[in-house]
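Practice record 12: protein with nicotinamide-adenine-dinucleotide.
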Amino acid sequence: MAELLIPPAQQLIDGEWASARDKGELPVTDPATGQTIQAVARAGRADVDDAVAAARRAFPGWAATSPSERGALLRRWAELIGRHVEELAAHEARDVGKPLSGGRMNVYIAQGIVDYFAGAADKLTGVTLPTRSPGYLGYTVQEPYGVCAVVIPWNVPSVLTAANVAPALAAGNTVVLKPSEVAPLAPLALAELARRAGFPPGVLNVLTGEGAEAGAALTSHPGVNHISFVGSTATGRAIMRAAAENLVPVKLELGGKSPNVLFADADMDVAIPAIVGSITENAGQNCYAGSRLLVEASVKDEVVERIAAAMRAVRLGPWDADLDMGPLISEAQYRRVLGFLEEAPREGARLVTGGGPAREWAGERAGGRPDGWFVEPTVFDDVDPGSRLYREEVFGPVLAVQAFSGTAQAVEMMNDTDFGLLACVWTNDVSRALRLAGEVRSGQVSVNQFADAGVIGFPFNMQKDSGFSRGGGHGAMREYTQEKGVAIRL
Ligand code: NAD
């Protein structure tokens, strides 16, 4: 099996590795050390034109392949991902700064997603419609859009590549992917594997470059037929404005401020580690991170104490030490998170643990002072519901705790947010769990677990300022197709 090399300072356009036409290159750094890992191409407008043109040329041929052929290629891609897990995991972990085991988990998730859409490719159907009288036939067909632009952030690059590229390709679209400028290596490596799997040139193109330049040029390009964006709410708004000019449909998966709602009757031995994991995994840099803990007042003190002890036990280190938590992605993110930590006590929150830059690495390099962007896992109690810490996405390992009394107040507080991504309910009372699941305004709900473990094809959907999309599961095939109605007089 050939090694999975990404040529320095290049991107993948029309089935070939290519340098940027005129913008040079961008360094990609390890956030634990600040050292450069390698350079990638710095895409500009000319590269965007090339990639969109390649995708447009490839579209008619690709759309004309049978769904089973597309499924077979996706299956081959998934197999190749499975054979390169370690290399892909190292790219994902080093780029983002997460522990290697976290990178490995993301690659397995990506492989599972590609495999799922390999199976879904030939199961996309239209419907036949009822008619007013005999002598008519009405039916619908699902057709691909054409060229899909996919723009993703840096936190889980392999998962987000798979989750958006695989359904778009399965449905017969071609794709121009723009990963984040700070974590492009896993997406490039995945695209190289797609090339080796046999996807024709131009079907999947990857442009590496900055958001304000390559991202903006791609999402405002008149040759693009559908835009899929995953990232911050602010950038989502900018992209939607750009898309309005070309009247192009947009799928948005944006930020979150997800609550864990913990009732006194929950199984605490299951809930507490899961709640800690929900805000420390990937250093809290997940859109669905459990950043708010709403806990029944009668057990709050005991719960906060147990959570604080578990947070203090989280071991920090660089990606290759493979401990529990790595650094934040960048200096900008580090300064932003420290800003929240400094402001929270002034807004009335009570610091329970953490609260600043991490002073030591754990593990083999114990005691060594981290030179990367490490912050301590942090818990604030009694957080004012009007404060920035309670209302804004921090994107760091910072938990905001609030007490509630009774189910009605739990529902009210759960919904007291601009975001609507995920809500997790912890209780052994089934009726109460069903009531909360029904009344919460979020795209996803999980009960007695964090997120959707154990469910296949779970819809990764959003409400409110978290965006709107039909991601994950079979709904994604519909997201990447347009429905055509046909009416015939026989
Ligand atoms: P970001 O919005 O800064 O950047 C995301 C992507 O958009 C990057 O590729 C960037 O280069 C590009 N971009 C930036 N400005 C652009 C512009 N004007 N036009 C076009 N593209 C542009 O987000 P980020 O800091 O990379 O990621 C963190 C955010 O992503 C958080 O808000 C997080 O919640 C969100 N996120 C959401 C989901 C989800 O499924 N809802 C998943 C992961 C992350």
